[in-house]
Specification:
The protein is built from 15 helices and eight strands. The protein has 366 residues and is of the alpha/beta class.
Length: 366
């Protein structure tokens, strides 16, 4: 018998969101772990909000909604609110009931910006890593560091002389501008839409882009991110950020640090040894213009150990963090302006990456 396609509205509906989510859905464990980490940030949240006035959107719900935006590659807050309006899974994860109205995108963005600060982002990451079942997954002795470029939310046409000179773009919404014959550097020019962005090119023969430089510190046992930083894009930023990330960790036993050949600099290697860090850095075998191979700061004291070869294999896993952050979380070109906001967003992306990995890492062996 053919069923009827007639639709009739119901006056009352009783839907238990908890029962609509599959028991083995990975977001169940992710939400549980995220809530444990957010509970440790309660004091920090109290300091951000006044005790008077109208209640705002709970910060825990703002951050859980932000995690969903990164997990599911949602491009904008407006699209996120549309998804929250009809997706029961999203409502359950954020903490909204089926009858609760979703927030206006502008209200959500303004409330979310309050949490986009370095202290909350780093606190969230630290709280997550301190949870007993997460902490047991981390290596205490072996780490990897690397950097990558995040394209800024600024047009090359906005890179104008600081003194106000230069030819303005042509007429129209997206007027043309000719850069030929114009020497542009970060010393003389700056973006009018994002002054913190810097003009930088990754290697010889590559185009220069307005960007930031993101840095991550990874533990080598399971490839989880344990630290993050965003800086201006410069030739020395990777090494400076690496020392800063190591400085945040408690001093104790000697550790190893894997890195690519960009870190094979004598001053950096000496700084690592002073901090009781064994430099498992790839040897820079480039040949100078004179034909002589470049002098390396890594010698047989390091390379003769079997651990050096292991670090050289495992260090490449840090690219998985950057690949997920750019392809899935949408950080290939950040949609925020200003170094503080970009730094917070990247740290939140590291939290999201760790959370998305945990269901598999914590699953019982088959």
């Amino acid at each position: 018998m053919r069923g009827s396609d007639q639709q009739s509205g119901r006056l009352f509906a009783y839907v238990n969101l908890e029962s609509r989510i599959a028991p083995d859905h990975p977001l169940r464990l992710i939400r549980e772990i995220a809530n444990e980490a957010l509970a440790k940030l309660n004091k920090a949240f109290e300091e951000l909000y006044s005790r008077e006035g109208r209640p705002s959107i709970p910060p825990e719900r703002l951050l859980r909604a932000g995690l969903l935006q990164l997990f599911y590659s949602i491009r904008s807050e407006r699209q996120l609110m549309e998804r929250l309006d009809f997706d029961l899974l999203f409502r359950w994860f954020v903490g909204l009931g089926i009858d609760d109205p979703v927030w206006d995108p502008t209200v959500f963005t303004k409330n979310r910006d309050r949490l986009l600060n370095t202290e909350i982002a780093q606190g969230f990451l630290a709280a997550l890593l301190s949870l007993p079942r997460v902490n047991q997954l981390l290596s205490r002795e072996h780490f990897t560091v690397d950097g990558t470029l995040l394209k800024a939310w600024a047009s090359m046409k906005s890179f104008r002389p600081k003194d106000g000179g230069g030819n303005p773009p042509g007429l129209g919404r997206n007027g043309e501008r000719n850069f030929h014959g114009e020497k542009r550097t970060n010393d003389t020019h700056a973006s009018t839409t994002d002054p913190d962005a810097r003009l930088y090119r990754k290697a010889d023969g590559r185009e220069s882009v307005l960007c930031y430089m993101a840095h991550a510190l990874m533990e080598n046992r399971h490839g989880l991110a344990v630290g993050g930083e965003v800086t201006h894009a410069t030739g020395t930023a990777e090494r400076e950020a690496a020392l800063a990330l190591l400085g945040r960790r408690k001093r104790g036993r000697r550790i190893t640090l894997g890195a690519d050949k960009a870190y094979d600099v004598e001053a950096f290697v000496e700084a690592l040894r002073e901090r009781k860090v064994t430099p498992h850095i790839t040897i820079d075998g480039n040949v100078r213009v004179s034909g002589k191979p470049r002098k390396t700061a890594i010698d047989a004291r390091t390379t003769r150990h079997a651990g050096y070869a292991i670090s050289q294999v495992i260090r490449k896993r840090i690219e998985e963090i950057y690949g997920w952050s750019k392809a899935t979380a949408g950080l290939a070109q950040v949609k925020l302006r200003g170094l503080p906001k970009v730094k917070s967003l990247f740290t939140f992306a590291l939290v999201a990456y760790n959370l998305i990995r945990l269901p598999n890492l914590l699953a019982p062996p088959v």
